[in-house]
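As a warm-up, study this chain.
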Amino acid sequence: MSKPIAIDLCCGLGGWTEGLLAEKYDVFGFDIENHIYGEHRYPAQLIVQDILTIHGSQFKDAALIVASPPCQEYSYMAMPWKLAKAKAAAIRADHTGAALERLNRLFNACFRIQREACEAAGRHIPMVVENVRGAEPWVGRAKWKHGSFYLWGDIPALMPVVMSATKVPGFRFDGSGKSFQTASVLHHSDDDGRKIGGDWFSDPKSTCRRHGSKSKGRKMASAMIAKIPLPLSRHIARVYR
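Now compare it with the structure written out below.
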């Protein structure tokens, strides 16, 4: 029998994909760039494409769609800073809805793609979208959370228990592409739903504060922090397998 097909939107380094591959899916990832940092890279077939340009009908044969649209803006506006609060206030003050639409454009695109895929397939194709708690004021309350990872969409009735929701402090990047965290901490983060890397913005020692927004160090830090924990991705993959 052929393997079921899964689509990973905004796939980054492939946290969703690792679980899908472990559960014997054929996986196709979509992102605006190919993330390669030393030995760390996307583990399946990657299509470099902006998801805003995708029509979901091409995924009519998919068994599952997953997505992790960028969360930096949501995280920033959740910070207790004057500029962050001003940015959030400006979006709320725009009664045309254009600012909110721009903020949510990638999040909304995921559900548009799912809808188009379902219409083309003539059946429901499940989708799970991951983002951060800071997205809730803008896109609505998440249906479930796995530590720092908040989920929207077709969430299974039974989900794995998470004992801790604390992010792992001390994310490090030395420019080599290897020394961002000890192997033991990386493995531990998979089990308890922690995002690797301390506080994205408020921790002055965090990689996201110490490197420019376009630097390879910051891009790697963002990609690693965003990776879905393997127990979570495998559970979702197993349910829909």
